[in-house]
Amino acid sequence: MYQPKENSKLYHRLLHQKRETELFLSAVRLNIFSYLEEWTTAKIVAERTGFNERNLDLFFNALACIGLLEKGEGIYRNTSQSNEFLNQRSPIYLGEWILFREEMMSLKQLDERIKNGPVDEIVRNNKGVEVYDFYEAARVSISEMYSGRVQSFVKVALSLFKNDFPKKILDLGGGSGVLVMELVSLFPDCSGVIFEYPGVAVLARKLVAERGLTQQVSVLEGDFTVDSIGGDYDLIIASGILDFARDHLNTLMDKMYHALTASGYLYVVTHNISEDYQRPPESILGWLSSHLEGLDILLSKKTVDSALKQHGFRRVHINDVNGIFKGLQGEFYSK
């Protein structure tokens, strides 16, 4: 009899993970967590929603089984984490962002793309705007950014600049522009610039007006890979945008270097891709659908680090004795 060298647990685990994910996404689509802020029954939720009581009870039990709900004697409620991020009444509700990201990174066309190859036009142009809806990505990401990213960044900026406040800040490809808006609200006499594609600049301009910052924050439209980005910045934010400049990386690095003041900082967030494109798996798989479509823009960390060094940027090494830099995704560079 044939004796296998390994068992098949891996495949069982992968199938189970898929079922957990399907449960989770269905609950978000049906807005289930907005009905379970307090202890309640499937019967009450069924009356409020029109859903089937029997199957709701089974659904709630399964969600509790995987840790997304708490279960009592025939009653259910959100966990504290589900209540904070998945309840539509929460100020940092992430449901829209989750569903958008799932659709954006979906591999539902995986079989077709493997059989038939990428889209010729996307391969030729190699631009993210042909694959991604940057406006919607910026819009639904606002609440996700306030789930910790914005707070960590602001804390670090306050520590970095201390009493030597920046006078001018650029958020390059900044989407909604919330990072620069938060900073200009804290630093006296500071102005901000959000640089975005015209389609996304509409959102940034709307938010600037809503927050009463039109006198402090301006919005520039264009393609930062080829257009002028201005100058005299004390801080340039380049968060998750360098990949989209793959074909113009040296040009962009040179522009950013000369756009900074002598004592200015460049803040860079990358995906920390390994040289063999194996890690981190979240990024490799997250970009896979767009790469199958025809994009070829994901940069390794070594490529980004080499480009920064080649153009005169030096990483800022800071002794984080108070844990201020804990949770910060990117790194700061000086000239």
Automatic annotation (TrEMBL):
InterPro entries per record: COMT-like, COMT_C, COMT_dimerisation, SAM-dependent_MTases_sf, WH-like_DNA-bd_sf
Gene3D superfamilies: Vaccinia Virus protein VP39, Winged helix-like DNA-binding domain superfamily/Winged helix DNA-binding domain
Keyword Protease: no
Domain of life: Bacteria
Residue ranges occupied by any O-methyltransferase C-terminal domain in the UniProt entry: 149-283
UniProt-listed CDD domains: AdoMet_MTases
Keywords for this protein: Methyltransferase, S-adenosyl-L-methionine, Transferase
A GO molecular function held by the record: O-methyltransferase activity
One GO biological process term: methylation
Domain (O-methyltransferase dimerisation) ranges: 22-87
Protein name: Methyltransferase
Protein's organism: Iocasia fonsfrigidae
